[in-house]
Amino acid sequence: MFGLVTVAVDGSASALAAVDWAVDDAAREGSALRIVHVREPWANEYPFHRVEGFNESLTDYCEGVLAKAAEQARERRPGVTVSTELSTGAVVERLRHESEHSDTVVLGSRGMGGFAGLVVGSVGTGLAGHAAGPVVIVRGAREERFGEIAVGVDGSPHSEAALRYAFDQARLRGARVHAVYAWSMPMFSPFVAGYADVTRDIFEAGAQRIKQWLAPWRDEYPDVPLVESAICGHPTPALVEASEKADLVVVGSRGLGGFGGALLGSVSHGVLHGAHCPVAVVRPREQKA
């Protein structure tokens, strides 16, 4: 859409891992890479920051962070156009703004400075839950490749956006899609007759739902292999388990049923904390009139 992948850096090892993921993604898509470092202006309010020469030193540090990240990206993918931006403002707000003009925003799972506590704190959840487009959070370096993209599905509009992103990623990588639908079994009285039959019927209904949801995607992406898992259980462990053999896990930022409140509730936090590979959080882009 924009031909641009944006990655946020802060000088941490996690951020540099995110740079590698982002430049690889840009190379696959034929996009440019934009590397952003956000400097928060209120840092100057603290007394020790008013030492003579501090601002100049901080600016040099920020520019050095960008330069190192850009050098790494160019060495890894020489054919990708790389630009840098030193931005000033609140980290989440600045990155939300970047997401409005980027196909994807990429961050490391742990950081320092403005990105400290990225996943567990307000920056990660604030950006992932409200960005205009996909946000990818990279959990360290992982060179092993499995040729699979796992995606959580539940039939909601946010799930549809996640499926679109997952299929596009799989096509670019020559990988397959593993669609995971997990739901919780309703509570039954121990005195209900025919419990086994009811359980079987519920499971079969769940398996049928995922087949119906995925039928249009099979038609639209006939060149992308697709496998599906219908699981009676909580979606977090189902997706975490799927991530063990996946190159990327994709979830919608909100959902229905098993993914209700994703990225603001327990499912999203569980996947972000427990996944063994990068996690993409996708919400539908607003259509401008």
Assigned CATH architecture of the largest domain: 3-Layer(aba) Sandwich
Strand content: 15-25%
Q: Give the terminus-to-terminus CA distance.
A: 16 Å
Q: Which outline best applies?
A: elongated
Spatial strand sequence of the major β-sheet = 3-2-1-4-5-10-9-6-7-8
- DSSP strand count: 10
Order of helices and strands: EHEHEHEHEEHEHEHEHE
Q: What is the CATH class of the largest domain? A: Alpha Beta
Whole-number mean pLDDT: 81
CATH domain topology of the largest domain? Rossmann fold
- Give the total of domains: 2
The helix/strand class is alpha/beta
Show unreliable segments: 113-121, 256-265
Number of discrete helical segments: 8
For CATH, the homologous superfamily of the largest domain is named as HUPs
Write the layout of secondary structure elements.
Layout (H helix, E strand, L loop, with lengths): L3 E5 L4 H17 L2 E8 L14 H23 L5 E7 L2 H9 L4 E5 L13 H9 L4 E4 L9 E5 L4 H17 L2 E8 L11 H26 L5 E7 L2 H9 L4 E5 L13 H9 L4 E4 L7
Parallel strand pairs: 1-2, 1-4, 2-3, 4-5, 6-7, 6-9, 7-8, 9-10
Antiparallel strand pairs: 5-10
Helix pairs in contact: 1-2, 3-4, 7-8
